[in-house]
Specification:
Structural class: alpha+beta
Distance between the termini: 29 Å
Strand order of the largest sheet: 1-2-31-5-8-29-30
Shape: elongated
Oligomer: single chain
Helix content: 25-40%
Length: 577
């Protein structure tokens, strides 16, 4: 019984039969081979005449003959399957290395541009043509790596753990990371007020840096990266040694600056920023009657003297918060993704909640689930990482001072913290700074510059005596300050930072990145659906660039060659009977 095949399907059966004919010619008798040749000729003739009914009958006859006499041997099946898989893997690997790739974002280091579990399309030909499976390029267009561009980099040769990986279980490679380019070679930059100020190699202001969409902090922690030697510690920021801490026989410490500015703490504007946490009035001596909480600031890191046993000396200040300021904190609350189990919050990992950590107790009324805060709004993470805005009545919102303190003090990354603020002298990943007289935290203004409480705080800071260094607004840097205390990017390198400063392992840790490590750029977010669909915020580039044209042409040539090989194998006119 014939099947109602279309002419296209009949052509496909003909092509397959021609390929099988060449294979079967080695094991069929001459009579059977001639019979198959006749059936193929009949089918070819029917297709040429566009006689659909005859083509269907002839296609059926060809299929029945092959089922009876031309079944593939087990060896043939295994060989064809293996070759097909290897060919597909090689093409897929080359496409991923040189053209485009689909990424799933595993962490929150680029929030809010990319959030955990986002699916992103990355083009590898944005500004270069990569050498497959190497950390280098056939061709590179540095003019298309702009300040503010989002780039994909390989961890090869950088001071990062576990960078080795394997693609498709066969091809060795290096892990890739997504960061934003904030400075290019020859730039000198300085951080103030969550913004980046800078000058280029000719000394001209880099005003485009001030347009970067999010806030940027010049350090991960005041201690940076600490390398221990025999009788000393080396403190590194931006992967540059900036201080050496010597250890005496009595165990006391003495530090000296060894960085390019010879002024530890002022490097790149570090002392413009404080790390903060919330304290309850019971944890403070002589609290104000109207204070619901206190914002404690840890600031102004300095090198130790011979009389200390601390790696760094820091100052501490406290600002009282009334109800209006607590409401601002609630409306500004920002966290990365986290899980709640039995009222306790645990850090998010792609595998599930990090139950090995202590967790942060919030409220037993909160249903188990995955949540996050952004600009004070709470979201539940549903199927496919789709966000659902929660109503103000949901118990995840901090209605109590204790819960507000717990969420703030667990930091953006929801590290395992403690409700006892004094224990371990713990400070979370919450950064506070002045900008034009106003005091910011979580990227939002907490105190306007004319707020009486802030004015009193600043006056009290300035009035303190002795060796105490006050935390006050130093103002935006001048060109001379940028030249003196700024960070200069080496030739052929780029400074890459994550948009989520609290969770990003970036150039602050592994330093400026060599040009050869840049591999491409994310072009769009295609999942989950929502307002972030489409192109991420970054400078626009012309669509047709030399690197893209070359890669597209090469892909077209490879596709044509593959088609030509297949077509040559299936041309009946080449069939030798």
């Amino acid at each position: 019984m014939t099947r109602l095949y279309s002419l296209r399907k009949c052509r496909k059966i003909l092509d397959d039969a021609v390929i099988r004919y060449k294979t079967l010619s080695k094991r069929l008798s001459s009579e059977l081979l001639a019979q198959l040749g006749t059936l193929i000729d009949n089918l070819d003739s029917s297709i040429q005449k566009k006689d659909v009914e005859s083509a269907r009958i002839d296609a059926y006859n060809v299929q029945q003959f092959l089922l009876e006499h031309g079944r593939k041997t087990l060896f043939e099946q295994i060989r064809e399957f293996t070759l097909a898989i290897l060919f597909a893997l090689i093409i897929a690997a080359l496409v991923r290395q040189m053209w485009f790739e689909l990424y799933e974002i595993p962490t929150g280091s680029m929030r809010p541009t990319f959030r955990e579990s986002d699916r992103v399309l990355v083009f590898k030909d944005t500004f270069c043509i990569n050498k497959p499976f190497e950390t280098s390029h056939f061709y590179f267009e540095p003019q298309y790596v702009k300040r503010g561009s989002i780039v994909v980099l390989t961890g090869d040769g950088l001071d990062l753990p576990d960078v080795d990986t394997v693609y498709f279980g066969l091809f060795p490679g290096k892990r890739r990371y997504v960061k934003r380019c904030v400075a290019k070679d020859g730039d000198t930059i300085y951080f103030y007020g969550g913004k980046i100020y800078g000058i280029d190699k000719e000394g001209k202001p880099l005003n485009d840096l001030l347009e970067l969409p999010y806030e940027y902090i010049p350090f991960i922690s005041f201690e940076g990266k600490v390398e221990q030697e025999k009788d000393s510690y080396i403190i590194e920021h931006m992967n540059i040694p900036v201080a050496e801490i010597s250890v005496s026989y009595a165990g006391t410490l003495h530090g000296k600056p060894i960085g390019p500015t010879q002024s530890f703490g002022r490097d790149w504007g570090i002392d413009n920023f404080a790390i903060s946490r919330l304290l309850e009035p019971k944890d403070v001596e002589n609290p104000r009657d109207d204070a619901l909480l206190y914002l404690e600031l840890k600031h102004t890191p300095r090198l130790p003297t011979l009389s200390t046993q601390n790696l760094l000396i820091t100052e501490h200040s406290r600002i009282p918060l009334d109800d209006a300021h607590c409401q601002i904190l609630k409306s500004s609350l920002y966290t990365a993704r986290f899980y709640v189990r039995n009222g306790t919050a645990f850090r998010y990992t792609p595998e599930g909640p990090d139950l090995k950590g202590r967790g942060v107790f919030l409220d037993r009324k909160i249903p188990d689930g995955c949540y996050e805060f952004y600009d004070g709004n709470a979201y539940e993470i549903g199927w496919g990482a789709i966000l659902h805005l929660l109503p103000a009545s949901h118990p995840i919102y901090p209605t109590s001072i204790k819960m507000l303190k717990a969420l703030y003090n667990s930091g953006i990354d929801l590290s395992s913290s403690t409700n006892s603020a004094k224990k371990h002298n713990y400070f979370p990943s919450r950064y506070t700074y002045f900008r034009d007289g106003a005091l910011y935290t979580m990227g939002k203004i907490l105190f306007q510059k004319d707020d009486p409480i802030l004015s009193t705080f600043v006056d009290d800071e300035k009035a303190k005596r002795g060796s105490y260094v006050p935390f006050v607004d130093k103002g935006a840097p001048s060109i001379d300050e940028i030249k003196t205390y700024g960070l200069t990017i080496p030739n052929g390198h780029y400074l890459l930072l994550g948009d989520n400063h609290a969770m990003s392992n970036d150039s602050r840790f592994f330093g400026a990145v060599p040009q050869k490590n840049l591999q491409g750029s994310p072009a769009l977010t295609f999942w989950p659906p929502g307002s972030r669909w489409g192109a991420p915020p970054q400078p626009e580039l012309p669509f047709w660039r030399a690197s893209k044209v070359i890669v597209v042409v090469l892909a077209a040539i490879v596709a044509w060659i593959c088609y030509a090989i297949y077509n040559r194998r299936t041309q009946t006119k080449r069939l030798k009977k």
